[in-house]
Amino acid sequence: xxxxxxxxxxxxxxxxxxxxxxxxxxxxxxxxxxxxxxxxxxxxxxxxxxxxxxxxxxxxxxxxxxxxxxxxxxxxxxxxxxxxxxxxxxxxxxxxxxxxxxxxxxxxxxxxxxxxxxxxxxxxxxxxxxxxxxxxxxxxxxxxxxxxxxxxxxxxxxxxxxxxxxxxxxxxxxxxxxxxxxxxxxxxxxxxxxxxxxxxxxxxxxxxxxxxxxxxxxxxxxxxxxxxxxxxxxxxxxxxxxxxxxxxxxxxxxxxxxxxxxxxxxxxxx
Length: 270
What we know:
Blueprint: E1 2-5, H1 11-18, E2 23-27, E3 41-44, E4 60-63, H2 68-73, H3 78-89, H4 94-99, H5 101-117, E5 123-127, H6 132-135, E6 140-142, E7 145-149, H7 160-165, E8 169-171, E9 177-179, H8 203-209, E10 214-215, E11 221-222, H9 240-250, H10 254-264
Parallel strand pairs: 1-2, 1-4, 2-3, 4-5
Antiparallel strand pairs: 5-7, 6-7, 8-9, 10-11
């Protein structure tokens, strides 16, 4: 069995299923935007409320905690830098604990599961490059997907086109397909620091091109009816189209999830 925390559209789970795992996913909402949603058993529950002892029979735990706060503070914006500085200036450490609460919950659950099982249960956490200043250096990265925890010592070489090809197809308005991937800046924000132009190359750009809202330099959504030649934004930041784009961009590529699954797949004793 594999446990998928913050499972989203099930990028981790797709690879696990392909390698013969049984999977159970946990998320606070059901992500289904016309693509079928999560492909295995889904439990709608806040990961913070889980106790790892219930996963004592698991062979592997994988997790993709939300990355938005890490991504935001990696941006070259005044308010983003101020937020990061305030967390670093908090000598009580409470701000850092609050920032990492979801990330650290994964490690807590692993420790509880391992204790209940009487054996080590491996955990692989995926997040963005911008998480590293706050949670420590990643063990490896698959393009812009950074891995922490029990990452295998031997990992395959990655070509950027493999990451881009791995994105899932999503119809944002019933007729437009696109493949989502995080950019090397570790963020789905429109401004990135992995390109000379300062603009990211991901599904976010396509939403902008379709006339949706975009972010100001402080990172928040506002209407800009004249810049792109449209009168009104077609979606809000809480719309299904916007949620779908974020979920697609964050989805773990199949080559990555399948490789991790193959490494940790239990082998029958000789």
